Write the structure tokens for this entry.
Amino acid sequence: MVQALERSTPERSTPERTAPGWTAGDAESERAPQRSLVESIHDTLRDEMRADERIVVLGEDVGRRGGVFRVTAGLFEEFGEARVLDTPLAESGIIGTAIGMALNGLRPVAEIQFLDFIHPAMDQLMNEAARIRYRSNNDFSCPLVVRVPFGGGVHGALYHSQSIEAVFVHTPGLKVVAPATPADAKGLLRAAIRDEDPVLFLEHKKLYRSIKGPVPEGPHDVPLGLARVVQEGTDATVVAYGAMTHEATKAAATVAAETGASIEVVDLRSLKPLDEETVVASARKTGKVLVVAEANRPCSVASEVAALIAEEAFAYLDAPVMRVAAPDVPATPYSPPLEHAFMIDAEKIAAALRRLVAY
């Protein structure tokens, strides 16, 4: 699981457009350096720590070991133990300590090794960090980033594969983002660190080293709350996020080649705040929408997006809003055949998309 991090040089880039509905080509120049997701997050953390002494990284094994996925490799050697803190195996303590730091002028970036391990910290995160601004009548804020690997498909089984982001999306006061590309990882992490409220930064572990892409150099920001139109289309829309963005794009290409349908793909990027304008505009344009999520289907982010479209674009729809998501079972199985049956992939998305375009 632990692989050596390829060392890279500091990056500088251009700001991203902030208008809803922008496409990937607007920001990701072919001339920009190619980086993996893990490299992009690592380099962004390093550059932000160099620029702002208030930023402190803390979590289990983030120091000398560089984290279980090597995201923080080298930061301890450069910034020292006062700014890169190895913590006990106590998630509630990690988040509680980070809240105290945030309330006292620091900019903590806390790491929880796996989203599956975050449950002991839920009280601190959902009852304390998320509500500090409200309970203090806007006198205090909690500028805290919590980085968390999530998602399955890596043979991690129970406790290393969960996608429970809907729990946090349901919590007022928390912001939740899930980048699908190295460029978005950089832009969203910079925006999250600068935000005055707590942000849950979800990193799909299957994407860490499986994808590479251009990462703009310089101060590149992706504002929280803006979706990304991966590709334009007119006949159907697929809405996804995280690793499912890539699976949805593959499925769209397959079905387009088979049927000639023009399929739009929207990457949510930000789960809360949700870019309702871009989602609704795409639904109204194409009239057919498929929403994809890796999480369990009931009460998921996909459910919320489907409800939004039903409320705001019903008169424009030519077919029911469809969802593809994981079955309602307790965990991702360890057995490879069962894991494959549980996971959402391009083949399953394409099957649903064929039914949708046939309406």
